[in-house]
Amino acid sequence: DIQMTQSPSSLSASVGDRVSITCQASQDIADYLNWYQQKPGKAPKLLIYGSSTLETGVPSRYSGRGSGTEFTFTISSLQPEDIATYYCQQCDNVPFTFGGGTKVELK
Amino acid sequence: QVTLRESGPALVKPTQTLKLTCTLSGFSLTTDGMCVTWIRQPPGKALEWLALMDWEDHKYYNTSLRTRLTVSEDTSKNQVVLTMTNMDPADTGTYYCARVIAVAGTRYYYNGIDVWGQGTTVTVSS
Questions:
Q1: What's the alpha-carbon Rg for chain A, to the nearest Å?
Q2: Which of A19, A87, B60, B123 is most buried, judging by how many CB atoms fall within 10 Å of its CB?
Q3: What pLDDT, in 10s, does the model give residues B69-102?
Q4: Helix (H, G, I), strand (E, B), or coil: what is residue A97?
Q5: Which of B19, B116, B125 has its CA nearest to residue B68?
Q6: Which of B106, B110, B118 to mutate to test the interface with A (most CBs of A within 10 A)?
Q7: A58 burial via Cβ count (<10 Å: 0-12, 13-18, 19+)
Q8: Are A5 and A98 in contact, with CB atoms under 8 Å apart?
């Protein structure tokens, strides 16, 4: 199975800060990497698929990049509504696997 | 509008079998490219992928849980059922069903998990 290592596990930032999360795959997954946002008590929401494509309706302050084994998710200017846990997920092949999550908090 | 809704028991006893139903609306698993996947989340922990069933009735399972999992479809009801045997307190958590679309290329490629059910909470306790 492909292992997904996500870092950091948590971070604290101020409104307006640029925030980045990394995800490393244990083998080459091309650009088959998705990012999700999960708020407490809610189902995850797809933000980015194919490493860098924004899902319809998702704010442009979110972005993703990377290919192969190294991926980065960025929030260009953190907003209060961005407080959540973020997960990466590989969909190169089944079994799908998720990263361990990054909890983003306000400083 | 595409929706999925999970249903099933909120409480099961250790060693029992869990049966969860996912009712689909706005799409059908008989349509090319459509897949339904199951994911769970223990309290305070990360998401864990469980299983996927596609439009051609192919089924895929979490490697470490495959001996306990079965996914099936009730086409007439537009429902997908997940069965997990020998439940343990460690299986306590929220269980989600969700849609994935596979796109044809040199092989089929999966898109993101784009529509999720609200989740159903399962507690395993005697």
A1: 13
A2: A87
A3: 999 998 887 999 999 999 999 999 999 999 999 9
A4: strand
A5: B19
A6: B110
A7: middle
A8: no
Dihedrals φ, ψ of B77, to 5°? -100, 0
Q: pLDDT tens for residues A49-79? A: 999 999 999 999 999 999 999 999 999 999 9
Q: Find chain B residues with C-beta within 8 A of A50's C-beta.
A: 111-112
> Is the distance from CB of B117 to CB of B5 less than 8 angstroms?
yes
Q: Do A32 and B109 touch (CB under 8 A)?
A: yes
Suggest the residue from A26, A94, A98 to mutate for an interface test with chain B (most B CBs closer than 10 A): A94
Query: Tokens 């980015």 identify what position?
Result: A48
The minimal CB distance from A87 to the residues B47, B100, B117 is found for B47
Is the CB of residue A87 less than 8 Å away from at least one CB of chain B?
yes
B63 contacts A44? CB cut-off 8 A: no
Q: How far apart are CA B69 and CA B67, in angstroms?
A: 6
Residues contacting B89, CB < 8 A, separation 6+: B14, B124, B125
- Vertex B121 angle, CA B9 and B114, to 5°: 115
**Tens of pLDDT along A4-43?**
999 999 999 999 999 999 999 999 999 999 999 999 999 9
Of residues B46, B116, B117, nearest to A100 (C-beta): B46
| H or E segment to which residue B64 belongs | none
